[in-house]
Amino acid sequence: MKLQSKFLASLFAGALLVGSAAQAQDMTFFRIGTGSAGGTYFPIGGIIANAISNPPGSRPCDKGGSCGVPGLVAIAQSTNASAHNVTAIQAGQMEAGLTGAATLYQAFHGVGKFEGNQKPDLRVIANLFPEDMHLVLPKGGELASLKDLKGKRVGIAQAGSGTQIAVLMILEDQGITLDDIEEAELNNSQSAERIADGQLDAYFYAAGTPVAAMVQLASTKGMDLYSFSDEEVSAVNKILPYYVPSKIGAGTYEGIAKDINTVAVQGILVTSASQPEELIYGITQALWNKNSRNLLDNGHAKGKVIRAETALKGIAGLEVPLHPGAERFYKEAGLLK
Length: 337
Prior knowledge:
- By secondary structure, the chain is α/β, with parallel strands linked by helices.
- It has two domains: 25-130 and 267-332, Periplasmic binding protein-like II (D-Maltodextrin-Binding Protein, domain 2), CATH 3.40.190; 132-265, 3-Layer(aba) Sandwich (D-Maltodextrin-Binding Protein, domain 2), CATH 3.40.190.10.
- The protein has helices at 2-26, 41-52, 82-90, 101-109, 162-173, 188-196, 212-219, 230-239, 277-287, 290-299, 315-318, 324-332, and strands at 28-33, 72-77, 96-100, 122-138, 153-155, 182-184, 202-207, 223-225, 244-248, 260-272.
- Strand 5, helix 5 and strand 6 form a beta-alpha-beta unit.
């Protein structure tokens, strides 16, 4: 009996291994580049990954299971954000990623920061949400103008981020070079910690509100936000046409009792031209189904503004093609002629 039991156990274990191997063969892994854990790209990327995934063995959508692409396992990866993501997609190191419109435009067309380093394989899946430029100050901190950043310790966001590309252009336009400041290349969470510890005088970060690291900073040590003058907003829009006038509403962060004038750029989900049409069609369809709507509405405050009806907002002006799979979905849904 013992020998028989051992034999049956071995058969069972073998069957499990064979079944697992068969399931593994049916899996398609899909890596999505996001941003730092303290920003907005990371949680939004996680929600999207959850929405489009449907691993082998999952319950069917109509029975309360996943409504993603059958066999797809999407993974949100923390990265240095926009510029890093478009570079990784072009290199085949990631299948998709989130990026700001300005970074996407420059990368695809090989201009600005990407001059001589064009990323022609980038393709759009969807416009997502506006990212507001935050200029964070310690509680009680004040600047008369952006020019007052001269001589200060300033966080310019991490290397490889769309924020840093924009910030360097904004500072240069204001007559400020890196020789004029003590710059710190840090992600959002690190910058917030440095502000709290008194090691920074200010830091820039573009992200969808509310930003987790800033929520924590505001509720503990406290913080202030710089409100751009109308002239500064116009100046930024002139040199960075994809940064448009915006406001961070009063009460978005604890202790910030007034509206903050700033600029915002659209956050966009992109992929590579090399991704199969059928796969991206399925991903786009999964992103905009009713189940995903619930995930977006309840997963993050910025998720509520990620909607199918604005998925193509501003895309034409970027002159970056939609992926054929996404384009097919939008045409079938009546969102694109």
